[in-house]
Design a protein that fits this description.
Largest sheet: 7 strands, mixed
Number of helices: 0
Structural class: mainly beta
Radius of gyration: 14 Å
Distance between the termini: 40 Å
Shape: globular
Strand content: over 45%
Order of helices and strands: EEEEEEEEEEE
Amino acid sequence: QVQLVESGGGLVQAGDSLRLSCTNSGRTFLYDFMGWFRQAPGKEREFVAAIARLGTTTYYTDSVKGRFTVSRASAPNAIYLQMNKLKPEDTAVYYCAGRVPKLGGPQDAYDCWGQGTRITVSS
């Protein structure tokens, strides 16, 4: 069984920084993308960022460009999300996800999800 586990959430003030970590336990698949998604209260889950397994190509939603950075950790299928200049609108539960190779872009059709870690940004 594959499990992704997020950590690093918490309560911060606007302008602060946080780093989320996502680690993989259990079986290890070769994901073509690993990504971060978030779900704010009362809203649908949305794509935040992703990184390709091959190379260092990264993808971001417009609202986090220039503030968030997704990167790979040394362990297989482990990634980080460095979040700087946090805003109250970044408040959400953040999920890590992995996608096995398939057609489609880095925002779509993820196969394995973590349980999420909550971030609250106060103004």
